[in-house]
Amino acid sequence: MNRCIWIVCGWLLCVVSAQAADTLMLSFDSCRQIALHSSHRMRKAENNVSSADWQRSEVMAKFFPNAKAVGSMAWTPQVDMMEMGLPQIPMALSLQLKGMYLAGFMVSQPIFAGGQIANGYRLSKVGVEAAKEQAALERANMIAEVAQAYYAYVAVRSKQIMLENYAIQLDTLMSQVGSSVEVGMSTDAERLRVETAQRQLAYQKKRVQTGVELCRMALTNMLNMDYDSVYILPENTSFEISSSPSPGLDQRPENRLLALQVKAAKIQKQLTIGKYLPPIGLTAAYTWFGNMEFGGHVMTEMGPMAISQSIKMELPAVMLSVSVPITDWAGGAYAIKRAKAELNNAELDKDYNQRLLQLEMRRAILNLTDGEDLVHTSELALQSATEALRVVRERYEVGLSPLSDLLAAQTDWQKAESDYIEAQTQYRINEIEYLRTSGNL
Fold first, then answer.
1. pTM (2 decimals)?
2. Secondary structure (3-state) at 3
3. Angle, helix 331-397 to helix 403-437, in steps of 10 degrees
4. CB 232: neighbour CB atoms within 10 A?
5. What CA–CA distances, in Å, run from 262 to 145, 337, 431?
6. What is the pLDDT of residues 322-359, one digit of tens each?
7. What is the CA radius of gyration of the chain?
8. Pairing relationship of beta strands 230-234 and 91-112 according to DSSP bridges
9. What's the rounded Cα separation, in Å, for the pair 305 and 56?
10. Cβ–Cβ contacts within 10 Å for residue 326, how many?
11. Which residues on adjacent β-strands are paired with residue 310?
């Protein structure tokens, strides 16, 4: 009676859950596409690529002439400029600005800047390439994380299905033992042993159910989905060992980032040298002045004679500028030596990290090979356990094997099935890790 109540409650819970959440059947490829499309990390990586490209365009604009217009107006009260008491020509002058204006435009073109502009543009192009490689690296890491979450979910779901099948076997066995007890062919001890196995199985099913929910929670979080409104089920759990691509470091984003780091250090050294070369620039300007009033008087024999002059003029100008550094107390030499040391460090980092990448890839190859062997071994063990369970069950049904042998055979089958599921899952994770370390994701 209690068992029937629990079955009805479980069925009602499943119905309520199905009504409260949408069920999605998703494959690994579907989860990967959803994660890449909705991940904030991928959106940030794409924004970084756009930002680097805009910076490149910003640096490229420095190759073109820089033109700007200027304008100003001023007003001052009358200002005495000069008062002289010469014996021959005594005079007094004043300046008055009432709405004086100055307007003009200026065009500047760098002719030589020690390679600063050209090297700056080269460095910005390296920045664009590095941002793209960083986005590719983020994409590979995201796919690897989704694979771990998805196949972990597949594993616990498969174990859940396996335990449900095992529960059916125990229910059938319990029915047989109960009938045997009623007719006196079995004892209560045998019935209690089956009941103990059922309770142990119920404990395992509860733990697996918790694992299913935790794995589903992790997967929905990676897919940026609401945990309470979406219930994800694996589309299929079919398994086959696929041929893996040939290994190599040339396709890894990390390896290309190391090369770009060295390239950027070389350009940075050229930029440092260019800071201490004489820059040459050409500037053309055209300026208008107006509303400048000069006033005053000059003493003559006939008395003071007033002077008034309004100034308005246009002034074109062309200037060539050269700045030759004479000394900075050897600061430039030290800066160049520092840039060379940083370039050397970048080359050392590249060599060291390439060895680490090679080691990581070899480890992934070893894990993939071992995983394939484990799949084959666990598959053979499962076949043996299944056949042994079939033989023992047939012998038990005709009274040639005790109940303990049947329960032991069922336990062995359960363990073999669980090992096979774990081997399949681990192989898939190892395969994704191999693809990531070989630059094929």
1. 0.77
2. helix
3. 160
4. 23
5. 29, 16, 31
6. 888 787 777 888 999 999 999 999 999 999 999 999 99
7. 42
8. unpaired
9. 66
10. 4
11. 293
